[in-house]
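Let's inspect one such protein example.
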Amino acid sequence: MMNRQLLLLWLLVMGAMTAYGQSYEDILQNRKVTVNYPDHTVTAYLKPVQAIATDSQLSYTWFSGHYIRITQGGYSGRLLHGYYQDFYLSKNLKEAGGYKNGLKEGVWKSWNEEGLLKEEVKWKHGLKHGKQLLYPGIKNAAGADSVQVMKYRKGKVVQPKRFFPKIKIGTPAFIKRIFHKKAAK
């Protein structure tokens, strides 16, 4: 009986040490930073990412010297990697989304100071990709918010598909004959 109790105690202690060790490792790898600016506050997660190849066409977001910075085609600090939140001084959310290796990834949302949703955009590898919903906050005749929808693919606006072919309609010939100017003699 005593051996069972000692074995159970030993398993509990080892399990607790292992669980603590895993969370400690996560704490070391994922670092939460808070940056206070005069008009807003940002909380973001950093993860030590091994040197990655950068693309000169993409903008990378990184942390260095107590500031979050954005540069095109490179970085010189710790890349943002994880959840990102930007708050107004009133503590209302201003913007929220995720980063992966310093590039925006997934759904990003932004709000006005009153807490009304302004925009929702999907990002993939640092480029807008998918729907962008703009909520202007203006009520239409039915009393509902009018929402503008734009579609992106690899950072470029995708034109909506036309259901009917474009038909060029010219002026009918009999109208041209009626209003045809006579040549001056």
The radius of gyration is 29 Å.
